Amino acid sequence: MKIDLRSDTVTKPSRAMLDAMLQSEVGDDVFREDPTVNKLEAKIASSFGKEQALFFPSGTMANQTALKLHTQPGDQVICDKYAHIYNYESGGASFNSGVSCKLIDGNRGMFTAKQVVGAINPQDYYYSKTSLVEIENTTNKGGGACWDFNEILKIKTVCNERNLGFHLDGARLWHALVAKKETPMQYGEVFDTISVCLSKGLGCPVGSVLIGDSQIMENAIRIRKVFGGNMRQAGYLAAAGLYALDNNIERLAEDHKKAKEIGDVLANLSFIKNMDSIETNIVIFELNDDVDENAFVQKLADKSIYIISMGGCKLRMVTHMDYTDSMHEKMLKALNQLL
User: Fold this and answer.
1) 3-state secondary structure of 273
2) Whole-prediction pTM value?
């Protein structure tokens, strides 16, 4: 039995999802004639109270498009040092949009409105122009942590006062909504643009969606084309997203529960140096200095259990819908045998 906890993107479509994909009505999305894509975009835009949404093949492309919509070359984006747009998008902010990132030293990928104020550049012409604040919820490198919505509201006030855009990388926003009992509409009221992923946690094979009002989204489809993201009969993929939205969100609580149970076992292992508190489906921990990280990962791999290194001595496990109860029992037993 292979247990793959490297990411919640390793899942495969369920039989019911595949059936929905096969039965979908499709058209040429470049001509905006794919009815299933149009339905998905309208459904997600409506749920967030936004005017428009656009389907993308990846979350990175959706985020990169958002950066380009909000900025001009030479501008600066405020984000956390753990931000996905800075760490895991291949330098796309500078390559695609010609912008730099002003990194905030936050707590597990989250920061305060006060820190945002301190990061905004002066207006003098020899500084980069600060034009955008970006946050990530949940925080990937921060161990699936969920933002305090009240702090988000305070940051929004700063953005309004300083005329800054506000973008949310919501790759795992669904997890935060379930864990914190929040709603998409709350987030749609605050952020100018939001990217959400359908393959992280929701079981889809491909797909992310960028959401915003019509003014900010006016050039989104042009930028997607420039980035090579136009698709044709994309309704087969959009159908998976529609199925996931109707069937796979509430069950995320099961993944959160299993992650916390893994954390309970790890907390009792003598060779664990530190572990982030677990709110959603990501478990991040550090080994004692005298424990070889590669050897530890290999020891688990020898038991057909696969995890991933995040760098900086951090190891990660991510629970997901293909991680079954029987796999979970085997996983907990294997960890206890490492004592």
Assistant:
1) strand
2) 0.96
